[in-house]
């Protein structure tokens, strides 16, 4: 490019001395240099348009994640029609799309959302938790019939395509119950997986672009320099966004049998690692350490015989209870319970699972009892 400019400057110098230019090869070379500059400009404009569109899409996509529990201290039961469930104990509400006063989640944009819920209740009466969209359409349900003494946990979840303004809420069906307390047994959570926007195909108008090209070589050079700066800045910003760490883990207790404690709480070590992208989970300590500040999706499943209480309790930094899966004895057999939610974590926060005093949990090489999670987005 600098050689082309040098040639152009020589021609301009000759013209300024009022000397005729007879060499047509030289003129053709100058014209070719100018066209090359224009082609460089068009190529950079194409790259810049594409980069700026992608950057705008990333920047304008809202961060949406919520998790809440019923809270309270006991059972909610209805024998006179359906009842809306209000999850007032909010754990996470990035984007403010969940309303703790109404129990409704409102989709802020059209997109695919992952929604899940967990319900717990004594087994002496039917249990339910039903996900409705726009007060009319049933999306998912967790339902258990009575099975005698004890308690039970059920959960459900799915990826749903929601339109902007769609509302989701949980409903307790007629003649059913649900139970919770401050340990978050019964939860409702979700997050935006990705936006879904039908964008018109962008067309590059060559004629319009050609008309906007500058007449002088110096102006074309200045425009190219400005475009190059914008392009480099935009691509650097995009690169920084693409460099978000990849974090995902899954592990099971493994072993071949029962873990039980009758003398205080016990940390559970999930040594059978299935996935550990980013190496944020330590199987020697059973701890997941958040590598960056952000919103993470965490879930766990517990299995054990039903002749003794079962538990799996998620702690943050060894002191704050986040979620719990707990079952009371219910006779012969075995049971499975799970829980999960989106959690906002600071860098360095540690999550671990504990077995409570006088409870048990069971696993073998088939991975019945698991602990897993992944980074949704940094903050």
> Helices and strands: which structural class?
alpha+beta
Number of DSSP helices?
4
Helix content: 10-25%
In sequence order, what are the helices and strands, one letter per element? HHEEEEEEEEEEEEEHHEEEEEEEEEEEEE
Average of per-residue pLDDT values: 85
Instruction: Write down the Rg.
Output: 31 Å
Largest sheet, strands/sense/barrel: 6 strands, antiparallel
**How much strand?**
35-45%
What is the CA–CA distance across the termini?
43 Å
DSSP strand tally: 26
Shape: elongated
- Catalogue the unreliable spans: 9-13, 16-21
Summarize the structure.
The chain has 4 helices and 26 strands.
Structure explained in plain terms:
The protein has four helices and 26 strands. Helix 2 (24-60) runs parallel beside helix 4 (217-242). The two termini are 43 Å apart. The radius of gyration is 31 Å and the shape is elongated. The chain has helices at 2-16, 24-60, 206-211, 217-242, and strands at residues 65-69, 74-78, 83-85, 89-94, 98-99, 104-106, 111-122, 127-133, 137-144, 151-162, 167-172, 176-180, 187-195, 248-252, 257-261, 266-267, 272-277, 281-282, 287-289, 294-305, 310-316, 320-327, 334-345, 350-355, 359-363, 370-378. Strands 3, 5, 6, 8, 9 and 11 form a six-stranded antiparallel sheet that branches. Strands 16, 18, 19, 21, 22 and 24 form a six-stranded antiparallel sheet that branches. It has a five-stranded antiparallel sheet with strand order 4-1-13-7-10, with no helix packed on it.
């Amino acid at each position: 490019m600098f050689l082309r400019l040098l040639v152009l400057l020589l021609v301009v110098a000759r013209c300024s001395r009022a000397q005729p230019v007879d060499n047509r090869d030289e003129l053709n070379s100058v014209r070719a240099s100018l066209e090359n500059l224009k082609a460089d400009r068009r190529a950079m404009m194409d790259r810049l348009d594409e980069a700026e569109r992608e950057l705008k899409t990333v920047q304008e996509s809202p961060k949406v994640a919520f998790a809440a529990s019923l809270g309270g201290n006991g059972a909610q039961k209805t024998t006179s029609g359906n009842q809306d469930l209000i999850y007032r104990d909010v754990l996470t509400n990035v984007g403010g799309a969940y309303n703790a006063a109404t129990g409704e989640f409102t989709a802020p944009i059209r997109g695919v959302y992952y929604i899940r819920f967990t319900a717990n209740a004594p087994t002496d009466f039917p249990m339910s938790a039903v996900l409705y969209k726009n007060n009319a359409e049933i999306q998912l349900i967790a339902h258990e019939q009575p099975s005698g003494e004890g308690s039970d946990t059920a959960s459900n979840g799915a990826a749903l395509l929601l339109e902007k303004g769609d509302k989701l809420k949980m409903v307790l069906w007629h003649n059913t119950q649900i139970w919770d307390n401050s340990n978050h047994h019964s939860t409702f959570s979700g997050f935006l997986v990705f936006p879904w926007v039908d964008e018109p195909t962008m067309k590059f108008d060559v004629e319009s672009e050609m008309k906007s090209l500058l007449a002088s070589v110096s102006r074309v050079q200045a425009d190219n320099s400005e475009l190059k700066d914008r392009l480099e800045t935009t691509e650097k910003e995009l690169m920084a966004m693409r460099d978000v760490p990849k974090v995902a883990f899954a592990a099971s207790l493994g072993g071949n049998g029962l873990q039980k404690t009758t003398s205080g709480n016990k940390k559970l070590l999930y040594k059978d690692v299935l996935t550990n992208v980013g190496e944020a989970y330590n199987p020697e300590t059973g701890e997941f350490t958040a590598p960056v500040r952000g919103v993470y999706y965490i879930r766990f499943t517990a299995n054990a015989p039903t002749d003794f209480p079962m538990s799996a309790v998620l702690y943050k930094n060894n002191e704050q209870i986040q979620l719990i899966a707990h079952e009371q004895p219910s006779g012969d057999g075995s049971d499975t319970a799970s829980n999960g939610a989106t959690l906002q974590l600071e860098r360095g926060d540690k999550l671990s699972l504990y077995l409570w005093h006088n409870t048990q949990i069971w696993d073998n090489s088939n991975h019945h009892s698991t602990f897993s999670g992944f980074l949704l987005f940094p903050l």
